[in-house]
């Protein structure tokens, strides 16, 4: 269902569907990326085989849980909503429909669940985002990227103690960006120096 409680609709299935997280099926994905999910498409510069929105739609019909393509449509919609696109054309289907389809297609894919949480956060639905981040972390409890994103949401929700818990998990791998830690330092929750 869309955020307006309308049924999700879209184009007919073509090539695929293939699972982005399944090693055997990933071998079939490069043909989609070469023809429909090129760098200019991913970065919203221009379409490859047709209109930009059509290439994004084709990619996500062929590979419903393609993480980079899902993130790309989320960013596209955010730019669209903020009038930041040079050519303003709506997506074929609402972003939430692509994300729900991805989750239904591959329910154990924590990446798609966390991307849906991110989109919910960006559209102001922070309590629902909280639920989806928790679901993603149930699937992948040691995923530092998801812990990082969830901790950022918790800071926005002013749940600082819980944010610290997930921030510690995020920084355990030593690769997380410093922004979250810096926020928690400013708030007086993270006590050690940024560059330790």
TrEMBL record:
Q: Which InterPro entries match?
A: TPR-like_helical_dom_sf (IPR011990), TPR_rpt (IPR019734)
**Keyword check for Phosphoprotein:** no
Q: Which domain of life is it from?
A: Bacteria
* Coiled coil location: none
The lineage, from the top, is:
Bacteria, Pseudomonadati, Pseudomonadota, Gammaproteobacteria, Methylococcales
Family matches, as Pfam families: TPR_8
Residue ranges of the TPR repeats are: 110-143
Q: Please provide the record's keywords in A-Z order.
A: TPR repeat
Q: What is this protein called?
A: TPR repeat-containing protein
């Amino acid at each position: 269902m869309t955020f307006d409680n309308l049924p999700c609709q879209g184009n007919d299935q073509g090539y695929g569907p293939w699972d982005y997280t399944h090693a055997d099926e990933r071998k079939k994905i490069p043909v989609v990326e070469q023809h429909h999910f090129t760098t200019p498409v991913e970065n919203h510069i221009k379409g490859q085989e047709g209109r930009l929105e059509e290439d994004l739609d084709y990619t996500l019909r062929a590979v419903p849980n393609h993480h980079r393509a899902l993130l790309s449509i989320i960013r596209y919609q955010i730019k669209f909503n903020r009038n930041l696109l040079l050519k303003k054309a709506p997506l074929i289907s609402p972003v939430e429909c692509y994300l729900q389809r991805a989750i239904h297609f591959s329910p154990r894919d924590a990446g798609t669940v966390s991307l849906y949480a991110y989109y919910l956060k960006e559209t102001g639905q922070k309590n629902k985002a909280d639920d989806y981040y928790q679901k993603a972390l149930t699937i992948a409890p040691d995923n530092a990227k998801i812990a990082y994103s969830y901790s950022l949401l918790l800071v926005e929700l002013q749940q600082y103690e819980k944010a610290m818990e997930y921030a510690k998990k995020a920084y355990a791998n030593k690769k997380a960006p410093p922004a979250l830690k810096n926020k928690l330092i400013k708030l007086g929750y993270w006590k050690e120096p940024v560059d330790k």
